[in-house]
Amino acid sequence: MKKIPQKWKKTRMKQMNKFKDVMDNILSEIDKGSKFVLTSHVSPDGDNLGSTLAMYRFLNKTGKNVYYVLDDDIPSGLSFLAENIEKLSSSQFDDNNYIFISLDCGDIGRVCVSEEIIKNAEKRICIDHHYSNKGDFSDINYIDVDASSTCELVFNLLRRYEENMKTEIIDSETATLLYAGLLTDTGNFQYSNTHPSSFEMAKVLLERNADRDRVVQKIYQSNSFAYYRILGDALGTLEITDSKVENARVASITVSIDMMKKHGIGYNEIDSITPYTRDIENVEVGIFLKERKPGEIKISLRSKNFVDVSKIAAAFNGGGHVRAAGCTINDSIENARKIITDYVLNSF
């Protein structure tokens, strides 16, 4: 059995200790503040929603006025996470004297609210785990690129609050939100960002009555009929290209606006097609391209072993993680596929 290196354990513990001052600084600002605006990145995913809404519930439970603002739709498969929480658009928010908290946003271009809301905040706090985050759009940054998810950082923050206040703040609903984000960002504990701390976090959340069965059923076992119809069409676009490295091929799948219209499914409802590009024998990099609007192609990149897809995404003004990243190419979907595939092949 492969053991976790002692060096890794010590490094992770050192990282955790390093962020105690940052966490205490954030908790101090929360204690002093009375009004908060929370948001995350465009195209909501499980970690986006889990971290933001867990923070929302924490602030609400500690007597703060909290506004959840996001200029995007929540995918139907994740809407259960936002039950009983009102989501506002930027145009619906008109207030002042607030602290702004962005969660799971690697750069300011991904923050899914208006520039005015960011600019007018009394203070800006960023909680994130993306490699691409330079920490240049917030006053206080809690950025840990070694964390499995932003939900793990929120979990650490709430546990720090519990330690300082000698009380429990993570209830069943908050635990469920954090578990959802942890599960999705680790790919159900399959991805390389799954660490011992991920399982320790899961243990605590289950002890706090996280509704594991509901999360699993809603996220992984409730796909619509339309999803499977478009998945069939999408797999029909699959292309696999050999690289100069043996047993390290590149696979790509495309989904156009016309395909989404044909099956009556939304842009944010099909991201779970992405792993199909990577989960093929001898494929090192998977590429999923979906057309947001004519001439704007969202690209999701996944790798298995040695390709750092965050560097590839960065070349197109995107970002993400070593094994999972994304970017946008403004071109036709056919040209975008050729451009990104050629770039990936040249990066081997």
Automatic annotation (TrEMBL):
<dbReference type="Pfam" id="PF01368">
    <property type="entry name" value="DHH"/>
</dbReference>
<protein>
    <submittedName>
        <fullName>Bifunctional oligoribonuclease/PAP phosphatase NrnA</fullName>
    </submittedName>
</protein>
<dbReference type="Pfam" id="PF02272">
    <property type="entry name" value="DHHA1"/>
</dbReference>
<feature type="domain" description="DHHA1">
    <location>
        <begin position="262"/>
        <end position="344"/>
    </location>
</feature>
<dbReference type="InterPro" id="IPR001667">
    <property type="entry name" value="DDH_dom"/>
</dbReference>
<dbReference type="InterPro" id="IPR051319">
    <property type="entry name" value="Oligoribo/pAp-PDE_c-di-AMP_PDE"/>
</dbReference>
<feature type="domain" description="DDH">
    <location>
        <begin position="35"/>
        <end position="181"/>
    </location>
</feature>
<dbReference type="InterPro" id="IPR038763">
    <property type="entry name" value="DHH_sf"/>
</dbReference>
<dbReference type="InterPro" id="IPR003156">
    <property type="entry name" value="DHHA1_dom"/>
</dbReference>
<dbReference type="GO" id="GO:0003676">
    <property type="term" value="F:nucleic acid binding"/>
</dbReference>
